[in-house]
Amino acid sequence: MTPSTLVPIALGERSYDIHIGRGLLGQASAWAGLARPSSVMVVSNPVVAPLHAERLHAALAQAFDLGPARIRQVLLPDGEAHKDWNSLNLVFDALLGNGCDRRTLVVALGGGVVGDMAGFAAACFMRGVPFVQVPTTLLAQVDSSVGGKTAVNHPLGKNMIGAFYQPQRVLADLDTLATLPAREIAAGLAEVIKYGPIADAAFFGWLETHVEALAALEPAPLAQAVKRSCEIKAQVVGADEREGGLRAILNFGHTFGHAIEAGLGYGEWLHGEAVGCGMVMAARLSQRLGQLDAADADRIEALVARARLPVRGPALGADRYLELMRLDKKADAGEIRFVLLQGLGRAVVMPAPDDAVREVLQALS
Ligand code: NAD
Ligand code: GLY
Q1: pTM of the predicted model, to two decimals?
Q2: Does residue 254 carry a catalytic annotation?
Q3: Is 271 designated active site?
Q4: What are the structural domains of the chain?
């Protein structure tokens, strides 16, 4: 058994560890130290469950000495377009229909869509039940499973209805990524790349050397990238759990990206694809405002392109982008607040003149 790497998230009584390793899904020992639940509800979807649920169920049964009747599963329809109230209700139906109680452990097995919805359901059911994230996409392993943001989408805005609710553990089994389509790996790379410009210029340089190896899921660079991404996220979330300030830097590329996702209809572009393009837009806006050198903006655009992510946005029109971005959660009294770069490795959150934003959008979409 390969030992897993632990990345701690320091949040006082809500502290937990991210376990990163190979084969974790099938290991009963991965659950050691958690309180024995009365039952388990695995939340997954029809794509992930046939690939990975069996080993998870066996490990849970062994770890907690629970029979099959105490380990239930609910499958939600796959995809961003189904990250909504209807899917959320399926979780509540399953929890109530199976007699679950306050000691039921909710386990999210899947990507960010399943994780965000299972987490929100765990936050709401009986006002909060124990919750563990078992992320199976690169994006979920480096970002969405960590830090306690849970949500569903509203037709008028992404992730608009949600709660902060921390998991008790994150089990990131790198082996599960082997079944991911290449497009999904690229989408995950967007959130990996994000950590360089906002917090770690050296990591950005390392990614420039290793991006193709990561796309090919080469074991050593992959483990390194997941670990470093989680460390940076842990540091930011540990300093600002509920996004009073600093945490907003994790949304680099997301203001533009969320507008792309909402403007095209959820699921048209993958979240990571929209973030990849959004990072290029945010870098060019930083350059336009004199905060970032052209050479650094070029490096960001080149790395995003090498990760096989889009670097030009859909032609929604600048007015529509601006309208959608005014719905962003960072907006303050209708004023859009962008995550901009003051050099590689340093992000700030600030407004930008509409004219400058329009110029960037006209050049890049
Ligand atoms: P996703 O959950 O839709 O997963 C992508 C696709 O891959 C889906 O079709 C899924 O069924 C499939 N899949 C998952 N694991 C697989 C595997 N191992 N093998 C084969 N197929 C697999 O998308 P995602 O990119 O993981 O997550 C995107 C979501 O995460 C968005 O809704 C975004 O808003 C959210 N997000 C949340 C946070 C947060 O902090 N909570 C951060 C970033 C993103
Ligand atoms: N992905 C943004 C955050 O966790 O804050």
Answers
A1: 0.97
A2: yes
A3: yes
A4: 5-179 (3.40.50.1970), 196-364 (1.20.1090.10)
